[in-house]
Specification:
By secondary structure, the chain is mainly beta. It is 5% helix and 55% strand. The two termini are 59 Å apart.
Length: 941
């Protein structure tokens, strides 16, 4: 009995000891102005890790912490981190910490560009960060529009949210047409948005920025060669918000805006997150928008949205995370605007650089599908749909400490994507006296000669009647009635129908071993994509004016049957302009190793290798016009269905593997706690994308593999934090070899659209990037970032097809030594920010210098400036309002140049001789987007 009593007493005392050997810790985080810091990460580390997030008042707490010694680590983007040893030896402890501002986030740990998380100051890479505050200062016009704020990054967002261009350091040559992300990787949470690219299929189609985005990390060159899949030019990683707060919290944002000529935008964003219990946490949110667009169209330019979520289980050794995304979104893209005056481009034909879209209006047509003609298959087509992007993605990410200084991390994702394009390609001026307007009805089978009647498609009202009988002898077409067409022309345009599907799986496994002075990372990455593309184009009749109207067109010669040259909607030459039906399976496998060697307290050496193998296995369908008397409908009076391109049954297969080794060596020398020098030498490779097979081998066997481009880069940089001034600056040299260049051409005599033979070229760029911030006063900050560079086309030739398929008159033109086009020699962002109490404001100036418009350097795009401004007021601790204005002064900048104003023209077709011989000719430019104002209302809880 005494033994039992003694045991009970012992257990009681033991339990009491255990109870009293645990503590609760509460604390606060504040800045140097004694303002609370929300969203700071606080972790306690010993044999196990615990961490939490500070709340709206800067508060944080831990419960059931055993007595003992710990290291407390505190970090928040924009502040210098704190790490110190603390002793927990009483029941309830209260801690208070004041964080010093880290103006450029140089002490902040970044994930992108490093295999192991590393503070920017200690990294030998050029990485910039946009936090959620900076993201909220940007008018929501898409991914590229946001990245304009990254130093050294050239972006062209003039087409809208998609069909954009992003590149760095002159690594741009293959990204200047319809694959603007060719050399860089657009990522979400460390994995690519998409594995493949080809014409009109780039990753920006499937990326949207909203409140679920916590920050953006941008890596320029350098280690991109060894950390990213087939993307040596850089990595732009959109990192989702991670919520580990004990309580429920979130944010709701309502936005309304006015763009251009009074076009409205409405948008709602929301994000919510918190604890589910037992160390389970969740985060979920997304957005929906309705946007009439920056330019004038008769349809809604963008509508739709996305939903994202993640669920995380934290353990003593790491975490497990399940995440997903559902995107269902419609948007469109703008074509060019006509201009005259080569020396000072001015909008022509009544068009306007600010508001003209020159897109076909909305209509609902059913165009025969060349693949399924015998079954009566059709494709619905409405230009109002633009590109309909759908993406369903699920991923699993985990990181675990294995003991003995070993850890493992694996991130994997499956996605199913579809991008369906229903829009216009080209909007060129075509005179009613130009044979092209009539030849393209059915590729000259038959050629309509005589009285051509143009009727407004919706009402059937006759607009004009002409006689083109003298067209073969060079005589102008004559109006037969008082009715005329605007500008005596039609718009040379095509219905552009593309259907792209891709099922993808990707993953990256990394093992880490730390010992002594080495931090070794090695592993492998895989990616598999099963993709297909179908493209069909039909000529379309519409007026050439600011708000085009579709035209029903007929041939009405006296005493002869009326011949319909278009259907009731104005669509002609059904499926006769373009045809692509291709599919491919892509396998990417990479093995990598990286050692971060701490040679001394001040010197770190970074050595990395990556071997990558990419296999492209697929096929293209051969095609020919489907011809039978009377066309598809067997009706001799309908000419618009006489030339439908359809598969012949012959298939051209390809199966090529690209193997290459890339490396990157970096050195970081720590001058002081707040300053470092770094240098890096990298060699990367870029395997061809699928457009190589889909575009360049139309109706011919694919008899050779594409060339692997090589990218060599050297960079030397300085990073420093002073009392009220922080900066980074990087001097770089980059060289791009084996650049395959092929031009899109149109043969007016035969109606053929083709790509010229590939030419392989070399470019190099020498430049200086910088990023800085200066805070001379407590509430005012000046930000200044940019690039000065000298981009050269060192060895460069262009294939001149002389505008015909016939090779007898072809030639090769040498432009070696010219300035590389579309790369400004000077580009910068200058901003002033003011924050005090409840008021915040900013004014930004973005300058883009003069750019050559083609490799012939025949025409230049002038420099332009854009000013953005914002004003915010915190109404209560939870409610705030913001006003944003982009392009405050409605600047007339030109972002791009598409060549002469004729159907099928391209930028390289304009030479100095062409300009001298055609001083009054019109040409196509793409202006920057006009002014837009946005009112935001934010509620946090």
């Amino acid at each position: 009995m005494n033994l039992i009593k003694s045991l009970i007493a012992f257990l009681f005392l033991t339990q009491s000891f255990i109870i009293h050997s645990q503590s609760s810790i509460s604390g606060t985080l504040s800045d140097q102005n004694n303002q609370p810091i929300e969203g700071g990460t606080i972790s306690l580390s010993s044999q196990s890790n615990r961490y939490t997030i500070s709340g709206p008042k800067g508060e944080f707490n831990f419960t059931n912490i055993p007595f003992g010694e710990y290291t407390i680590n505190i970090s928040h983007l924009g502040f210098k981190p704190i790490s110190e040893r603390i002793k927990i030896d009483k029941d309830n402890m209260t801690l208070s910490y004041f964080l010093d501002t880290d103006l450029l986030n140089l002490h902040t740990v970044v994930l992108t560009g490093n295999f192991s998380p590393k503070a920017q100051l200690e990294s030998s890479t050029s990485v910039s960060t946009l936090n959620s505050e900076h993201i909220q200062q940007v008018y929501p016009r898409g991914t590229a529009n946001l990245l304009e704020n990254i130093p050294g990054t050239f972006t062209d967002a003039s087409a809208g949210e998609v069909f954009t261009k992003v590149y760095t350091r002159g690594i741009s040559a293959a990204a200047e047409d319809d694959m603007g992300w060719y050399y860089v990787s657009l990522q979400e949470d460390g994995l690519p948005v998409s594995l493949v690219q080809h014409s009109y299929y780039s990753p920006d189609i499937f990326n949207r920025v909203d409140l679920t985005t916590g920050k953006v990390e941008a890596l320029r060159g350098g280690t991109a060669s060894i950390i990213a899949m087939n993307a040596p030019g850089g990595v732009y990683n959109f990192i989702s918000k991670n919520n580990s707060s004990e309580g429920l919290n979130g944010e709701v944002q309502l936005q309304t805006g006015i763009q251009g000529d009074g076009n409205m935008m409405y948008r709602a964003d929301a994000v919510i997150g918190g604890a589910l219990g037992n160390n389970w946490f969740f985060n979920a949110g997304g957005h929906y928008r309705h946007d009439d667009g920056a330019r004038n169209t008769d349809f809604t330019f963008s509508k739709g949205g996305q939903f994202k979520f993640d669920v995380t289980k934290e353990t003593s050794r790491g975490y497990f995370k399940l995440y997903g995304k559902y995107l269902n979104d419609y948007t469109n893209r703008y074509n060019g605007v006509a201009a005259t005056n080569w020396d000072n481009p001015t909008a022509a034909f009544g068009q306007n650089f600010h508001n003209t879209a020159l897109l076909m209006p909305s209509f609902n047509a059913n165009i025969p599908d060349g693949r399924t003609l015998s079954e009566g298959g059709t494709n619905s087509f409405n230009p109002a749909n633009g590109v309909h992007a759908k993406d369903l993605a699920f991923g699993f990410d985990f990181s675990q400490n294995l003991g003995n200084d070993w850890s493992i991390k694996n991130n994997m994702k499956f996605s199913s994507k579809n991008a369906n394009w229903q829009t216009a390609i080209s909007n060129a001026f075509v005179s009613i006296s130009d044979p092209t307007a009539y030849y393209l009805v059915s590729n000259g089978n038959p050629f309509p000669v005589g009285q051509i009647v143009f009727r407004e498609a919706n009402s059937g009202t006759e607009l004009a009647r002409i006689d083109n009988s003298g067209i073969f002898s060079g005589e102008a077409s004559q109006y037969l009635t008082d009715g005329t067409l605007p500008n005596d022309a039609i718009m040379g345009t095509s219905t552009w129908y593309k259907d792209n599907d891709a099922d993808e799986f990707m993953q990256q496994l990394t093992l880490n071993k730390s010992w002594d002075t080495h931090d070794l990372n090695f592993g492998f990455a895989t990616g598999f994509s099963d993709t297909s593309v179908f493209t069909q184009g039909s000529f379309a009749f519409s007026t050439y004016e600011n708000s085009p109207q579709m035209l029903q067109v007929t041939l009405e010669n006296p005493g002869e049957p009326v011949i319909a040259l278009s259907d009731e909607f104005g669509v002609s030459n059904y499926g006769g302009l373009f045809f692509t039906n291709s599919r491919a399976k892509i396998s990417q496998v990479a093995a990598f190793a990286n050692d971060q060697w701490e040679i001394s307290d001040r010197i770190q050496l970074d050595l990395g290798l990556r071997f990558e193998s990419i296999n492209h296995n697929g096929s293209n369908d051969s095609y020919a016009p489907f011809t039978q008397s009377g066309g598809l409908d067997l009706d001799e009076t309908t000419a618009y269905d006489n030339n439908i391109l359809a598969p012949t049954g012959e298939i051209h297969e390809f199966d090529y593997t690209y193997n290459y080794l890339s490396y990157s060596f970096g050195l970081n020398y720590k001058l002081t706690r707040d300053a470092s020098l770094f240098g890096r030498v990298s060699k990367g490779n870029k395997a061809p994308e699928l457009n190589y097979y889909f575009n360049n081998f139309s109706n011919v066997p694919i008899n050779q593999a594409g060339e692997i481009q090589q990218i060599n880069q050297v960079e030397i940089g300085v990073k420093s934090i002073l009392k009220d001034f922080s900066f980074t600056t990087t001097l770089f040299w980059s060289e791009l070899n084996n650049i395959g260049i092929s031009n899109f051409e149109f043969d007016g005599d035969t109606g053929s659209i083709f790509y010229t033979p590939m030419q392989f070229n070399t470019s190099r760029t020498l430049g200086l990037e910088w990023e800085s911030i200066y805070t001379p006063f407590q509430n005012i900050a000046f930000r200044f970032n940019g690039i000065i560079q000298n981009p050269k086309a060192t060895d460069w030739t262009i294939y001149d097809a002389s505008g015909t398929v016939d090779t007898a008159d072809d030639s090769i033109v040498d432009y070696s030594g010219n300035t590389l086009p579309f790369n400004p020699k000077v580009m910068f962002n200058l901003a002033i920010e003011y924050n005090k109490n409840r008021v915040s404001s900013f004014l930004k100036w973005r300058y883009t210098g003069t750019r050559e418009a083609n490799v012939g350097n025949a025409f230049q795009l002038d420099a332009f400036s854009v000013f953005d401004a914002g004003l915010g007021y915190k109404i209560t601790n939870n409610l705030s309002a913001n006003l944003l204005v982009t392009n405050l002064f409605n600047s007339d900048g030109l972002a791009n140049f598409m060549g002469a104003n004729s159907f099928g023209a391209n930028a390289n077709g304009v030479t100095s001789e062409y300009i001298d011989n055609n001083p009054n000719a019109s040409f196509i430019v793409i202006p920057i987007l006009p002014r837009a104002s946005l009112l935001q209302l934010n509620y946090t809880f």
